[in-house]
Amino acid sequence: NYMVLGDRFIWRKVPPAFLPGKTDTFHFRNPFIRNTDTGMIARIQYGTIIEYNAKGEIVWTWNSENYLADSDIFPLMFQPMNPTNNHDPHLNAFSVDNADEFVYAGFRQINRVIKIHKKTGKVVNSWGDKMPSGEAATGNGFFYHQHSSQILSNGSIAVFNNGNVAEKEKPSSVVVFSQDTPAKIVWQFDCVYDTFFIKSSRAGNVDELPNQNFLVSTGTKHMGQGPASSIFEVTRNKKIVWMAVVNKFQKALYRAHYISSLYPAYFTAQAIGKWQNGKQQIKLFNEGTEPDLYTVELKFEGSTINERLFAGTVKPGSSLLLNVSPRILPPASSKMEIRVVSKANSNLVRTLNIDITK
């Protein structure tokens, strides 16, 4: 399935407790705040997470409208407008655990990461600044204007901590914290190395690599502080393995991700021998760099008979010998089409045409 972040916009009346003072005029420059005959209204931007299946059908969704408090939303609408401020909580990242049980999502503008139980849609834990709503259960002060909310293999959570741009002496950092009660920062790496001091105003990401190192992208530099956007790999012992500085697209580097190769899913299928005794042997060879599963579909010439079989997991660089034996034998002197489909990439198909003989 595919999971994406989205937005849902709703105009809401501003509660009396959050109305600006008479001397506060900066909000009049905000096009998403209006005065009406019934009072002041604001266009609220709620974040959504939507899961689609391979057919494009929605199978799960979550809407922050059911979670965020008014005190999380309206103070943002009336803050002074500047390039580093968003006027919404800004849901900007999520990850899912291997059991597909919990979703970890992060809101940049309220400095918060939450844990959503997929089955119920309820927020079962939260980390970050205690204010404004007081909803964050633990982790006060761990990060500020963070991006990424990556669940790690050991159950800890990693974020790229942009930090407060007003605190020029503090670099951006990678922060890893536990899910204990109370939570603890278990690992931190400040983006200071060689002659570089990285202060990022937005974006950035942290990926855990197969070797347990971290792949870090540092987002967009702030006001000339540090180099242009950079990507680096760092060990758990805080040693830089390699680093790249992206000079050309200084305003466009949002995230960087690891992939095992240009061909993570790739395979060949070969017919072994001829049709004999009601079966056909085929050999599948996984030439990609990731494990894969395969579906074997059978179609018979001049017949409505169609069958689907499933092959087991094939590791990279390994092969699988499979006996294809239809439940209902096709007529003699006909043809059978064997289609093998990759689970990792459903557009990757291999087709074998087999002559059926007695």
Question: What this model shows, in words?
Answer:
- This protein has 358 residues and is mainly beta.
- Helices cover 2% and strands 47% of the residues.
- It has one helix and 27 strands.
- It has one helix at 70-77, and strands at 2-13, 33-36, 39-52, 58-63, 91-96, 102-107, 112-117, 123-128, 146-151, 157-161, 173-177, 185-190, 192-193, 196-197, 200-202, 205-208, 214-217, 220-221, 230-234, 240-245, 267-276, 279-286, 292-300, 306-314, 319-324, 334-342, 349-356.
- The strands form eight sheets. Strands 1, 2, 3 and 4 form a four-stranded antiparallel beta sheet that branches. A four-stranded antiparallel beta sheet has the order 5-6-7-8, with no helix packed on it. It has a four-stranded antiparallel beta sheet with strand order 9-10-11-12, with no helix packed on it.
- A hairpin with a 5-residue loop joins strand 9 (146-151) and strand 10.
- The chain is elongated and about 90 Å long.
- The two termini are 42 Å apart.
- The model has no long low-confidence stretch (mean pLDDT 88).
